Amino acid sequence: MTDAAATTATRPSSLPVKPRIYSGIQPTGRPHLGNDLGAIRNYVALSQTYEAIYCVVDYHALTHVHDPELLRRQTLEMAAALIALGLDPERCTIFVQSDRPEVTELCWVFNTVTPVGWLQRTPTYKEKRANQPDDVNHGLLTYPVLQAADIALPKASLVPIGRDQAPHLELTREIVRAFNARYGETFPEPQAVYTESPTVLGTDGVKKMSKSIGNTIEVLGEPEVIRKQVMSMVTDTQRIMRADPGRPEVCNVCRMHRFFGDDYEEIWAGERTARTGCVDTKKLLAERIIAHYAPARETYRELIADPIKLRRILDEGAERIRPIAQETMAEVRERMGLR
Ligand code: ADP
Q1: Pick from 110, 229, 232, 281: CA 20 to 30 A from residue 319's CA?
Q2: How many Å lie between the centroid of ligand 1 and the Cα of residue 26?
Q3: Do residues 162 and 260 both lie within one domain?
Q4: Over 60: is that where the pLDDT of 292 sits?
């Protein structure tokens, strides 16, 4: 037997062959263009290289969503959207956080190794307290501990993040380190996989596209909705008259053309020479976005119309994680002196 074969033969079932990557996604309903270009496209690319686990984190959402129907609907919408936008449930694992409640046990365990000061200091806690001053629930404070448990439960060694999210992952690493120091080496300290992704500006052309601002382009929405949203986009504010030359490098519409076709330089040239007007460029962009997302829109529609099929895909994802989660928790319990 070769060494490689020996390794394979003795490998516990839960140990990944490829490095295991984990990412949690908030159940915010249908994603917008910024979510796709800034995050979901990367998830799809990463699932080709790594053993990827993507989790729709509904327990996390409980810290701010208190309408059960809304939470259920948005969770399913996000899951359907991830699949429609290219995540293949055969090539990666997609599951809903609350379908694997072992994570709440691990969160409790991690709570007992996490000093309160670490959590009180996190900028996101301060931000969230300010955002919902009438609802400063304990979940807002413990949120990073649940995040650490999310990543540690499947013993993921990699987490895809933007550079600005590095401090969040550092806290996870500290929590895991605290556990390992007290109870013995159990979890890998997860490393960041820095993903290069554009920041997509909203239809206002100023702020980051975001649901909370309402400046989104709903790529999985009806073509009419997309048309309306694109036509409302702010372009180069210095281009007043149709004959004025445009400045495509500062025009949000022109910049978006870079993602939808390889002829953007030609489009930019048309703007610079005033051969084309802002309205033409917007109309073209709207049609390109509609065409680009047509197959995804169709898949999304089918999945939403067939909740049994969608549920089955998510159940399969949760089942795939089950042995890994149970093995982790058995090890944790053993190390901690729990029965
Ligand atoms: P929103 O609240 O607008 O739905 P989230 O804050 O939930 O967005 O972000 C979900 C993911 O999408 C994150 O990885 C985030 O970095 C990415 N994302 C969100 N908005 C944008 C944007 N405008 N441009 C690029 N990436 C974005």
Answers
A1: 110
A2: 10
A3: no
A4: yes
Distance 156 CA to ligand 1 centre (A): 22
Mean pLDDT over 150-160 rounds to 97
- Residue 21 β-bridge partners: 52, 158
SS3 89: coil
Lining residues, ligand 1, CB within 6 Å: 26, 28, 34-35, 38-39, 162, 197, 199-200, 208-212
User: What is the reported pLDDT for 27?
Assistant: 97
| Catalytic residue flag (residue 18) | no
pLDDT digits (tens, 9 = 90+) for 251-271: 999 999 999 999 999 999 999
Task: Work out the percent of the chain whose per-residue pLDDT is above 70.
Answer: 95
Query: Is 128 annotated as catalytic?
Result: yes
Say if residue 192's pLDDT is above 60. Answer: yes
Concerning whether 208 is annotated as a catalytic residue, the answer is yes
Same domain? For 50 and 102 the reply is: yes
Phi, psi of 208 (to 5 degrees): -60, 135
Q: Which of 211, 228, 283, 309 is catalytic?
A: 211
Hey, whose CA ends up nearest to atom 13 of ligand 1? Answer: 39
Average pLDDT, the chain: 93
- Full residue range of the structural domain in which residue 212 is found: 201-305
pLDDT digits (tens, 9 = 90+) for 176-191: 999 999 999 999 999 9
Domain CATH code at residue 176: 3.40.50.620
